[in-house]
Backbone:
């Protein structure tokens, strides 16, 4: 997936999952037990994670790429020593 497509998908996920949070704050969703739990434990954490990914996704990708390269180098070194 291209970076621009990934960003658009994550942005729309972020926007669409924010709608129930608005309902939780301004509407009667807080009084509905299952809806309130869904907002608290599913929608809000996903919104926070997608926001972090939109903000610092490039940093996380670089960090994960470094970790993967270290593991790959270690595997190559171990295989050549055997």
Residues:
């Amino acid at each position: 997936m291209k970076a621009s497509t990934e960003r658009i998908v994550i942005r729309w996920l972020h926007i669409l999952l924010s709608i129930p949070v608005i309902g939780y704050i301004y509407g009667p969703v807080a009084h509905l037990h299952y809806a309130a739990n869904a907002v608290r434990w599913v929608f809000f954490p996903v919104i926070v994670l997608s926001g972090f990914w939109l903000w610092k996704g490039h940093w996380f990708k670089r960090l994960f790429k470094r970790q993967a390269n270290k593991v790959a180098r270690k595997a190559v070194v171990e295989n050549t020593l055997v």
The mean pLDDT is 88. Helices lie at 3-26, 33-81. The radius of gyration is 20 Å. The first helix runs from residue 3 to 26.
